[in-house]
Design a protein that fits this description.
heterodimer, A: 459 residues, seven-stranded mixed sheet, four-stranded mixed sheet, 19 helices, 15% strand, B: 314 residues, mainly alpha, 14 helices, 75% helix, 0% strand, globular
């Protein structure tokens, strides 16, 4: 009897074990992941190329490339570049894995942990890259990239350096600013974008009084909300305070608490779309959806904003220019000046996209980066109207009025602070974002917010 | 009656052992080996690793060098957000037992009678269970979004005042999600209980009604006690489901806003994959494992004991 009684105990123990194990590893990725191998192009063009002597000697190599440009036009542009590179270098096969932003972050973490590092993968530089460098997962490409890195703007290149060593190559650099619907502004009787934070708050109130939802924010994804807090920190503290906090990680400073107070003034106006606390950035029920369908007037977002609004608007076809697919005429203005703050109104907040080079990547991976950032190719990415290429001279490709506005803001920038959630380690970045969400929900005071971030930094 | 049966089992069992031709142990081992290998590689090894990691402060990338002992466990148990997540699991489990199972019992009793079109109803109620949690989550996120289907329905019947930010209001979101979970799983419990009802001999209910029992008395004193084993298994599955709740929540709210719908599993995935604190997340997973084990054992010891004994000795 006794021995029999133990059987269900064991069964239940196993059940519990399995259940705990499932909890630990469960990552049900709902997001679409597609892997395409465009070998067909290289095969068809291989015949004439192999007649060239050096190619016959070449060992076949494969470059695993993970990027997050999962919508057109950039998705097709990358595929085309890969096909062209493979056609010119028949011994190279480029395997592209395209992922949605959040899915990419989770998948990359798993692969890095397993030591299976993609040869080229999306990177924002900052604290995340530093962790990868410390773990020896990325490659020092200072030498291999020296031939072409001088063609790229220094500010962007610097984001992919850790202690002076180059680990990746940027292809896009932009900054965050306010996108606004001029038609809705006109309806509220506002004729010019605000120059100061107080004017901005007045405009928000004016929009509200006109029955228009002033601001859409994807506070469910957290990082769109962190743009507000970060920008106010930059305006209040300026470059000096931002550089200092990068070292001492102490947010318990009057200027940062003041930033929280200013944010509180905005939140108290209740300017956001219904359900903003659960809204993601890019979805029909998200920030881009609310702006794209003309339900809200203002969105604080990077250079990729208009493309996303257009995709959610349901107007026109993807081939049409972005401006034709937006619900009204749009404009861009930099984050307004904050009275009494140490920061200049020209200080910017932003970042870019680039590709880090995995530790086992072949030299061809770096050569491919050289190809995609070469002037002709950079111009082709700029012409899509979704990217601000960092290759010198490629500015001429920017014809889209929205991208030109960002480019101008970037050109005027006296200082550019990298996104705080990328600048710090993933852990501290996540803490910043979480705290911002509680500020938006009104469950903490600015003092408690500064305290909470500082505590998270202290571990 | 039970003792009689136990004796039976023993007398049947004894000669089995002596039967010539029962496989010798190398053969038994040969058959066990593949399953055992899989079990070791995919269950035992990850669990051991998880326990090992839980003692380190580790970001998942560096070598394991920073041994912190039980520090991770202390931090987790002192983190109000983790305690909150456990409470959310408990609330879902409690509500499932109090709301979902009685509802399923009621429906099952209704559909076990000679009702016109009951086959259609059974299929209809069971259908949501067939959907994956991810699909359920995506669909319900659209239904519950501001100005979504629910809000419009309420508006169209003039109940605008009842519309809520179903997924965005921290004080409501958990209950919205409980509704979705119930929507998905009540059909499953209903089918279990229907099966249980069919095992109850009609004679017993007849006998009760001949003795003058009202319908309610018959249900309360005959049907319900005989349904006991099925209901207890149903409750057990509900509790387990509530403890491991993840997919549906992750798809709809990711545990937000401001952690108002977090569960132990979303908390641990958040710390592991978003913050890259894999040592800490491992410690959390060990705690989750421990809690699940304790709940399972207690339930087995105090609630399922009679049922399981019957099943094994009878």
């Amino acid at each position: 009897m006794n021995r029999m009684r133990k059987i269900p105990l064991v069964v239940l123990a196993v059940l519990a074990l399995i259940l705990a194990a499932c909890g630990g590893g469960g990552s049900g990725d709902a997001d679409d992941t597609t892997t395409t191998t465009a070998t067909d192009v290289s095969e068809t063009t291989a015949a004439p190329a192999t007649t060239a002597a050096p190619d016959e000697e070449m060992e076949p190599v494969t470059v695993e490339w993970w990027h997050i440009q999962n919508t057109d036009p950039m998705m097709t542009v990358w595929q085309t570049f890969a096909d062209e590179f493979m056609a010119a270098n028949p011994h190279v096969t480029i395997n592209i894995t395209v992922m949605e932003n959040e899915a990419f972050k989770a998948a990359l973490q798993t692969n890095l942990q397993a030591g299976d590092v993609p040869d080229l993968f999306q990177s924002w530089g900052g604290g995340g890259l530093r962790e990868q460098v410390d773990a020896g997962l990325v490659q020092d490409i200072t030498e291999s990239s020296s031939g072409f890195i001088g063609n790229l703007t220094e500010g962007a290149v610097g984001l992919y350096q850790v202690d002076g060593v180059q680990y990746g190559i940027p292809f896009n650099l932009g900054m965050v600013g306010f996108w606004y619907n001029k038609d809705l502004f006109a309806q509220a009787g506002i004729d010019a974008p605000p120059a100061t934070w107080d004017e901005f708050l007045e405009d928000v109130q004016a929009l509200k009084d006109a029955g228009i939802t002033p601001i859409a924010v994807g506070a469910g994804d957290k990082w769109p909300a962190h743009f507000y807090y970060s920008y106010l920190m930059i305006r209040e503290g300026g470059e000096a305070a931002m550089n200092q906090v990068a070292g001492d990680l102490d947010f318990n400073k009057p200027e940062f608490i003041e930033a929280g107070n200013e944010l509180q003034r905005l939140i108290d106006l209740e300017p956001f779309q219904p359900g903003f606390l659960a809204a993601p950035w890019d979805a029909p029920d998200g920030e881009s959806g609310a702006i794209g369908t003309g339900q809200a007037a203002i969105s604080l977002m990077g250079q990729w904003g208009p493309g996303a609004y257009a995709n959610q608007s349901g107007i026109g076809v993807p081939e049409d220019p972005i401006a034709d697919r937006l619900p009204g005429e749009f404009g861009w203005f930099p984050f307004p000046a904050v009275e009494g703050g140490a920061g200049a109104p020209t200080d910017g907040f932003g970042g870019g996209d680039g590709f880090a080079v995995g530790r086992d990547a072949p030299l061809e991976a770096v050569q491919f980066l050289e190809y995609i950032t070469s002037l002709d190719q950079a111009i082709r990415t700029g012409e899509t109207g979704t990217t601000l290429p960092v290759t010198k001279g490629a500015e001429v490709s920017i014809t889209d009025p929205y991208q030109l506005a960002v480019l101008e803001g970037l050109g005027n920038a006296t200082f550019v602070q990298l996104y705080l959630d990328q600048f710090f380690t993933p852990e501290l970045g996540a803490a910043v974002n979480d705290v911002v969400q509680t500020l938006f929900a009104g469950t903490v005071t600015p003092e408690e917010a500064a305290e909470a971030i500082t505590n998270a930094a202290a571990g | 009656m039970t003792t009689h049966k136990t004796v039976d089992t023993k007398t049947e069992r004894r000669p089995l052992k002596g039967v010539p031709g029962v496989a010798p142990w190398p053969v038994i081992a040969g058959f066990l080996l593949p399953a055992l290998t899989l079990y070791t590689v995919f269950v035992l090894y990850p669990i051991t690793q998880s326990i090992r990691y839980s003692g380190f402060s580790w970001n998942g990338l560096e070598p394991l060098t920073n041994w912190v002992g039980l520090e991770n466990f202390r931090t987790a148990l002192a983190d109000p957000l983790f305690i909150e997540a456990i409470q959310h699991n408990a609330i879902i489990a409690g509500l499932s037992l109090v709301v979902q199972i009685p509802f399923a019992v009621g429906l099952a009793v209704l559909l076990s009678r000679n009702l016109k079109g009951r086959g259609v109803f059974r299929t209809m109620f069971f259908a949501p269970y067939v959907l994956s949690e991810v699909v359920t989550g995506v669909v319900w996120r659209q239904i519950l979004r501001p100005d979504g289907l629910i809000d419009r329905l309420l508006g169209s019947v003039g109940a605008d005042g009842l519309t809520q930010e179903w997924l965005a209001d921290p004080s409501i979101v958990l209950y919205s999600l409980f509704f979705v979970i119930s929507w998905k799983y009540f059909g499953f419990h209903m089918i279990l209980i229907l099966a249980g009802l069919q095992l109850i001999p009609n004679e017993l209910e007849e006998a009760a009604s001949i003795d003058g029992a009202s319908w309610w008395q018959g249900f309360r004193y005959v049907t319900l006690p005989l349904l006991g084993p099925t209901i207890r298994v149903s409750m057990f599955l509900s509790i387990i489901g509530a403890l491991q709740l993840f997919d549906l929540i992750w798809v709809t709210t990711k545990g937000g806003p401001i952690n108002a719908s977090s569960t132990m599993a979303t908390y641990l995935v958040d710390w592991g994959f978003r913050r890259g604190q894999f040592g800490y997340a491992s410690a959390v997973s060990v705690i989750v494992f421990g809690l699940s084990l304790i709940v399972a054992l207690l339930y087995q010891r105090f609630v399922l004991r009679r049922d399981l004994q019957g099943a094994l000795t009878g």
